[in-house]
Amino acid sequence: MQPFTTLSGPAMPMIEDDINTDQIAPLQLAKGLSPDWGQLLFKRQRMNADGTDNDHVLNKPQYRKPAILVANENFGCGSSRESAVWCLTGVGIRCVIARSIADIFRENCLLNGLLPIELSGDAMDRLQALVSQTDGAQPFSVDLPAQIVCAPNGETFSFEISTSDKTRLIEGLDEVGLTMKHENEIVAFEEKIRGSMPWMQEARDRRL
Hints:
Helices cover 39% and strands 13% of the residues. By secondary structure, the chain is an alpha/beta fold. It has two domains: 6-173, Aconitase, domain 4, CATH 3.20.19; 174-208, no CATH class. A hairpin with a 5-residue loop joins strand 7 and strand 8. The mean pLDDT is 90.
């Protein structure tokens, strides 16, 4: 998993509630076993009936390679498809900022190196306004170690994230990687069990 520390780039506004994973990753439109995830992102919303591009925000030149997506309430609701995150990272989005983020989608973000941020109240009102006003002309930045989002005008927005989630993103660790951080403790425990309960090792050897 690609580590996440800092990020800078266009912040794309999609100030809507309840954007779901079927909208984000319409798998019914995927072609082949290994589709172009970036091309699939919001494909239904981005295309006219004849297959041409419409005026969707992702079709604007300044948002062809966004870094941050700014939404509203309940982003990523719906089915648990991990491909929704792959579609976002497929166009370069490494951070989603919303008033609330669906739990399963949030976990999928953390497993794929995408930073999910929840902001509320006046802070989110102000950030959304700045993103819309800037319209991709200047970059926003995210600093995970410092836990701040910085707007082009220098205004900053602090966000909360658990220590464990912050660590796995900064170090680029999936579930296996997190487990292996405790390799010494695991080895010590196995040695202890081998000494106090040797019959367990014997039973394992017979199975092998």
